[in-house]
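User:
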Amino acid sequence: MCTVSSSAIAQKMVFFVLFYVVYFNALLLTLVPQIYTSPVHLVYLLLFYGTAFIDGMVRPLPEKREVDTYTKTLIVFFGLQPFLFVLAFYENLSLITRFLPPYDSQLVSYAGISLYIIGAALSVGSRVQLGRQGSGRIEIREGHTLVTTGLYARVRHPMYSGGLVGIIAFGLVFRCVAVMLFAIALFFVVFQKRWKREEQLLEQEFGEQYREYMKRTRRLIPGVY
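Assistant: Predicted structure:
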């Protein structure tokens, strides 16, 4: 058991270092080094990396490893993230400062920081609540249970809700509009298929119990969607 646990931790650490510390930072340092001299952007980056690290550590590894077409889509989606940071920075620099100066305020960025913390807590908290069922792979494990309490009492996918909040927070921190709207659209394009597939599997597994749960909850936003 300890050997498996140590191996899983090692895999997660290697991924975090290679993707976030090396790849992410290399692109940002090359394309927008100014971010590293901005206190509010530094705070955001630390929170962003910290959330990614914690989420990776609490996320159980999937029982099966398969790289299908959708998994490749997710890899591309996450691989594009640093480029969204770059585009957001330059949108603010070239457009927002000129045409929407009231939005270009440090207060907006710090409001985004606060909102990001809420989104991160939603995402990580909902994964922790799922326990061993919260792997990144869509699967029904042996002994799988339907979680309908806590963060799952109001929405069926609080993890994705947290991600959506995080994107809005990102837009506020970087004080951008177009890139934020693009990121939101991309989020729905990429993840809508995923949460619908999750619902399909859970309905097959739990039947009427899950259908009743769907009737009293929304997908992402309480009372809205």
